[in-house]
Amino acid sequence: MEDRSNQTYTPRVVRARINIPARPWQAYREEYRGQGFTVNNFKAMQKADQYFNGLEITLSSWWYDDHSCWHLFNWPQAVDDRVMCAMYHAEQYKGGPGMLPSAYKGDFEKFRADWAAGTYDPGATYTFKLENVEVLEVLQEETWQDREPERAAPPKRKKRKKKGRKRRG
Asked: What is the pTM (predicted TM-score) of this model?
């Protein structure tokens, strides 16, 4: 992998429409077989997808995951309630095998209060499969830019002791 430590990165950001086909929870079970999810987890995945379906939101694409998916970046205030409901359902299957369970499992009122207060933190980025995203507009292209070289501070001057002149007298 190329060393990019001397560069700053900006991801690709797009306005996009989410197109997730409706499917029964059993299809989620087939897709995620062997990963330790329960029937209730699959049903929550299905609900989250359907709340996101059809929304026009802002997504980002990042180099660190090889652009393998789109990341939820932002959304208009007009769809905030649907995004909130989608994220609540995502919280219901968060904490799969080997992970800490969600603090909001089965507690929509606590979730809604934290969402309204702006204190909700999902702890991870919600992602969408490439095939479920229709890009409508590119808002920002991905860029790598060289960082400005750090300029060395000029050396500090040493204070010279003032030597007094000896007076002849």
From this structure: 0.79
DSSP string, 50-115: HHHTT-EEEEEE-GGGTT-EEEEEE--GGGHHHHHHHHHHHHHH-S-TTSPPPTTTT-HHHHHHHH
pLDDT tens, residue by residue, 79-138: 999 999 999 999 998 765 566 678 899 999 999 999 999 999 988 889 999 999 999 999
CA atoms within 13 A on the CB side of 48: 18
- Mapped onto helix, strand or coil, the DSSP state of residue 13 is strand
Short-list 143, 130, 129, 135, CA closest to 11? 143
Q: What's the token pair of residue 93?
A: 């299957």
> Greatest CA span in the chain, whole angstroms?
108
CB atoms within 10 A of CB 89: 21
Rg over alpha carbons for the chain, rounded to the nearest Å, is 26
Structure tokens at 8: 């700053």
Inter-residue contact 107 to 94 (CB < 8 Å) = no
Classify residue 51 by its DSSP letter: H
